[in-house]
Amino acid sequence: MPEKKEKFYLTTPIYYTNGLPHIGHTYTTVVADVFRRYKRMRGYDVVMTTGTDEHGVNVERAAQKAGVPESEYVARMADAWRSLWDELGLTADEFVRTTDLQHVRTVQWLFKLCRENGFVYKGHYTGQYCIYDNAFVNDAKPGDNCPDCGRPTETLTEENYFFKLSAFQKPLLDFYKKNPDFIQPESRRNEIMSFVEGGLKDLSITRTTIRWGIPVPGEEPHVFYVWFDALTAYLSAVGGPDYEKRGMWPADLHLVGKDIIRFHTVYWPAFLMAAMLPLPKQVWAHGWFLMDATKMSKSKGNVVLPRPIVNMLGMDALRYFLLREVVFGQDGNFSYDALVTRYNSDLANGLGNLASRTAAMIEKNFAGKIPKPAEHKQQDAALAKEAQAAIGEVLERYEKMEFARALEAIWAVIASVDKYLTTEQPWALGDSEAEKQRKATVLWTSAEVLRIVTMLAHPVLPQSTDKVWALLGQTTSLGAFALDGLRWGQLAPGTSLGKSQSLFPRVDKVEAVERIESMANEELNPTQPAPAAATPAPATTPTAGAAAAAASVAAPERIGIEDFSKVEMRVGQIKTAERIVGADKLLKLTVDIGSEVRQICAGIAQFYEPESLIGRKVVVVTNLAPRKLRGVESNGMIVAASVGPDGRPVLAGFHEDVEVGARLK
Ligand code: MSP
Known about the structure:
Layout: E1 7-16, H1 23-41, E2 45-53, H2 57-66, H3 70-87, E3 94-97, H4 101-116, E4 120-130, E5 135-137, E6 154-163, H5 169-178, E7 183-184, H6 186-197, E8 203-204, E9 206-207, E10 223-224, H7 226-231, H8 233-236, H9 243-246, E11 253-257, H10 261-274, E12 283-286, E13 289-291, E14 294-295, H11 306-313, H12 315-325, E15 332-333, H13 336-366, H14 378-399, H15 403-424, H16 433-457, H17 462-471, H18 509-524, H19 546-554, H20 561-564, E16 569-580, E17 583-592, E18 597-602, H21 610-613, E19 617-621, E20 627-629, E21 632-634, E22 637-638, E23 640-643, E24 648-651, E25 663-664
Helix pairs in contact: 2-3, 3-19, 5-6, 11-12, 11-18, 12-13, 12-15, 13-15, 13-16, 13-18, 14-15, 14-16, 15-16, 16-17
5'-O-[(L-methionyl)-sulphamoyl]adenosine (MSP) binds next to strand 1, helix 1, helix 7 and strand 11.
């Protein structure tokens, strides 16, 4: 009988449905996916869950704005989230929606247990409430803004059911002391301990002011407070009231952002204690990805989207960057420049180059078969020792969620083998028996290092390491390989290499950033008319998916004349045109639109010579908000048809003479 595997249950937060995933959300889910793969390779039976948090006043409002019932709105948004995760290769084992029947049953059951055990009572609550964060703001006065998001609070008085959170101050502190690893990282643990030491107030866990929520049975119009509802998703995902059958609860790891640590380390364990259910083993809070030093949010217009990056550089590049760039637990800045730099240096020149040159030399010198090493020299043994030591170090780093350090250790080995190849110069060795043997040893050694780094990097780079694995002629599934059995020396000579595949083609930084930004602009403004002229659509831009779903929620397919009339288009005449240094697709134009002369950037540089445009009459969208393209302000957009598979822009124009400034209707 095979030994029963130990279980490991990990979760991402369940995401709000009033927006679509950006890099911040992607980060949490990527980390969960990396850890899931890593734990599987350590022999665990792993379940990872994610999902959508679909109740609350924000959803009520968003659905109203979109003119659809809440249930329809959330169904579309949940689909959009789910399909984006699928597209990014981040499909969880369970996807919970808080509108699922199983979840509704679980929330009602948890409440019943808390109530039966004497931890729920009815009362009144008046306070300042932040509708954006779905939380009463403790100690806020009327007129105060929410300390978390900075937006105004509203005064609310409600008849509520209260949860006796105050009764859990001591049990929680005892629990934290007994389980020093429960809250990670350490700095968050200290923060939470002092918060709880400062005293806990009872918490209202039902609402009568909100309609769109899970009803409290027999107590309508009470619905559950969104956090009582949302946190319970972790339990409903693995069986709810029947959790024992599935055998996954308690969770081994809740991964969360630092903004929601309190909900997970104070409220959630208290609810579970009250219901006498087992508590999760660990909550890990990561930092934020910032854009221009502030947290990304759609309202601030500074979000970074995952899809354009993936279209340009591949999902593995994004995964690598997110984990390598920032120490897990801390905040970090997101920058496209840094992303592409890392891609070129670590992936294209690092792993990609090692794989392709090693394979090419084996192909050329040993007819595509892994050679048999001969006598080892001291430098071969030194590399072997380093790679063997890296195995232990990397596993330890992963285990502690020190992803940047794990990758650093792997890439240090890649740097060493690069250096080894440069010194040993296998390509310069001749065909004498001794030289052939030396060549065999050097190439086997390099291929063996490649095999080891490939396995170690697999949790972070699943797609590309699968390719390297096949290139090394391995036929077993890499993801199913037990990392605990990984040792130096297991690469079998005689194995035929697989077909070589492109791993990380090098990209031109300026062009790559420009294309990512241009795709992101399009995804964020899907209803914008004729984007081809200002920002040409690369051939890889996907059509379907989450953005389309969001657009279809936000904008019906047909628009009324009043919507059309919101777009102001005028006849403009191009006065000057010049290329922009560092942006080979953009032209900087000045255009006379009758009332003024505007500066406009247009993505037509590859199709129109600047001089040929002077004096030309074009159609200009004049009431678009100004934006910066490659650092140059663009105040308007030139309309063009997008023609052919590469979206060649053809400027709209007139066959009759028209007056500059005339409005198009
Ligand atoms: N619905 C709640 C969670 C309920 S869990 C029982 C929620 N949703 S959220 O969509 O707003 O955020 C989900 C996660 O995304 C949080 O962990 C949050 O920290 C993370 N991020 C959102 N923006 C982020 C960044 N800019 N950077 C990193 N992660 C951030 O909260």
